[in-house]
């Protein structure tokens, strides 16, 4: 067996914020980052098929997973040999839908490769296969990959690794349900860009990094806003507490959470929303007082207020620093609450903003964490930053545990 195939079983195709995606995948599947191999937005891992099938749906930051089947030398690659070896791997029970994605340069034309594989596989199966997508399209989009799997077809992924003079071939095993994620963000009844929109995928990632006990665990979001984290908590079967200082916003969150049951994504809702100002003493709130007395939270997961929405970068770093200075007191109050209300074994996952400056740099605040009280969890995945193209405010994920 070839070298890579001896150590790894799958290729994980990471989301655009790769550090966050790596941390989440390794947390969910309990694999050490040192035992993986990364090439930019791809990661080689060794995970059991049954484990992947049972838990892939939990991930927010992974695009797809491919089962490794073949490894060849890139410098010796010939069209006929590649086609013959791939055809040998195709199961005889495959249906007519066939997809092909090629990552990197093989020095073989995509059109010729797809045509040759289509003809060879058709001959093996004794029926003409339908190649999904354009014959010149190197990489299929997620929607096409979902279509292939849903119709019982086969997608072949070929990845060139020039730094190792390797080409690996695999079959698509799992792919993200892009329609579901889009619906969770854009079809829910209540949306408000003025409040700010925590992306559903990021909310899922944050809950996965919190390491909440499955099925029986619970968490608190003290800045729940429109309820994105509470919604994701329901999809993961966690008991979810959410609070906010704004009563009208809480009413909107109620509608969003109830919508999950209305459309059939959740059978039973397990959540509680209540009004609370994080700057006030938690003992003055009956719900929080009872929680502190009888059990405390398994995790606290939240996106605090990040400042007013902006349409352009800050003119200077000094102006960006002034905004962070106005937010610092809120974060200190949040950490005081967290210290009092978190289970001794629990994690706190929250977001700290980073602000884009006109000169192209980013102002990243220095969050003051008492190192005698808190330990920052290191996932060995690089910076845990979530940033979209053209973002003015980036989200930095912080994960801490009590000492």
The amount of helix comes to: 25-40%
The helix/strand series, from N terminus to C terminus, equals: HEHEEHEHEHEHEEHHEHEHEHEHEEEEE
The count of helical stretches stands at: 12
Radius of gyration: 24 Å
| Cα shape | elongated
Helical/strand content category: alpha/beta
Regions with little confidence, pLDDT below 50 for 5+ residues: none
> Might you state the CATH topology name of the largest domain?
Rossmann fold
User: So what's the CATH class of the largest domain?
Assistant: Alpha Beta
Question: Could you give me the name of the CATH homologous superfamily of the largest domain?
Answer: Vaccinia Virus protein VP39
Main sheet makeup:
9 strands, mixed
CATH architectural arrangement of the largest domain: 3-Layer(aba) Sandwich
**SS strand fraction:** 25-35%
- Oligomer kind: single chain
Instruction: Give average pLDDT, whole number.
Output: 94
Count of discrete structural domains: 2
How far apart, in Å, are the first and last alpha carbons? 46 Å
Explain this structure:
The chain is of the alpha/beta class and 403 residues long. It folds into two domains: 3-176, 2-Layer Sandwich (VC0802-like); 180-402, Vaccinia Virus protein VP39 (Rossmann fold), CATH 3.40.50.150. The protein contains twelve helices and 17 strands. The protein has helices at 3-7, 18-29, 49-55, 79-89, 110-125, 142-150, 178-186, 200-209, 228-235, 247-262, 286-294, 317-341, and strands spanning 10-14, 37-39, 42-45, 62-73, 97-103, 130-131, 154-161, 166-175, 218-221, 239-244, 271-275, 297-302, 342-356, 362-363, 374-376, 385-386, 393-402. The strands form two sheets. Strands 9, 10, 11, 12, 13, 14, 15, 16 and 17 form a nine-stranded mixed sheet that branches. An eight-stranded mixed sheet has the order 2-3-1-4-8-7-5-6. Helix 10 (247-262) links the parallel strand 10 and strand 11 (271-275). Helix 2 packs across helix 8 and helix 4 crosses helix 5. It is elongated, with a radius of gyration of 24 Å. The two termini are 46 Å apart.
